[in-house]
Every structure is written in C-alpha cells, then in structure tokens.
Amino acid sequence: MPINISPVNARGGAASGISVVWDDGQFVVISAPKGLVACGAIDADVMDKANLAVAVSEGTIEHPLVTPDDLLNAKIMRITSKAMELGIEIGMSGQEALEKLF
Q1: Which helix (H) or strand (E) holds 30?
Q2: Beta bridge partners of 3
Q3: What is the DSSP letter of 43?
Q4: Number of domains the chain contains
Q5: In the structure, what pLDDT confidence band is assigned to residue 27 with cuts at 50, 70 and 90?
Q6: What are the backbone dihedrals phi and psi of residue 61, each rounded to the nearest 5 degrees, phi first?
Q7: Which residues constitute the domain of residue 46?
Q8: What is the pLDDT of residue 12?
Q9: What are the CB-based long-range contacts (under 8 Å, 24+) for 45-49?
Q10: I want to staple 65 with a disulfide (CB 3.0 to 4.6 A). Which of 39, 41, 42, 79 is the partner?
Q11: Whole-angstrom Cα distance, residue 50 to residue 38?
Q12: CATH code at 44?
C-alpha cells in the first residue's frame, strides 16, 4: 500500500500532497497552513462540525483523483463554513482553493 508525500507549490508557500493507494481504492489530500484541499473520501460535513477549512472535490470511476495534481485541476464541489470564510467557493479549481489556505 503506497503512501506518497510530496511538496505542492502554491503562491502562498509550500503545502504537502498526501496520496494513499491500495488494491481497491485511493484518496488524496493537500495540507496547507489553514486547511485541506481533499478528494471525496474526506467528509466535509464532519470537518465543518470541527470548524476546519476544507474544500472537497470528487473524481469518478473513470477519472479518479489519485495525485495532488489531479486534485489541483479538479473543481471544488463542497466546502466547509471555515473554507467559505477564507474565500473558497464551489466551482473554483483545487489550485485556486489551495491559494486561499495560506
């Protein structure tokens, strides 16, 4: 089960991309100083209750989100209240959301 941690550059600084792959699935998140950009494996409602800034995108069976680059290029589909306070909006790219998390 490979777990990969890689640097992700953003205008605000450096973040960490974490991708985990196993036989039947995967997930990917990018951790920045103020929160996460994440795939659909991360529950935005749970994160909202914890008052965390999280922006979530979702892949599909045909095009799963596996790498941090996949996440940066995907559209944000759900956000927490804290993410909204930072200026993150549904429909922006993962890259745009990441920039708001510095």
Answers
A1: strand 25-32
A2: 20
A3: -
A4: 1
A5: very high
A6: -60, -40
A7: 3-99
A8: 86
A9: 47/80, 48/80, 48/81, 48/82
A10: 39
A11: 16
A12: 3.30.1980.10
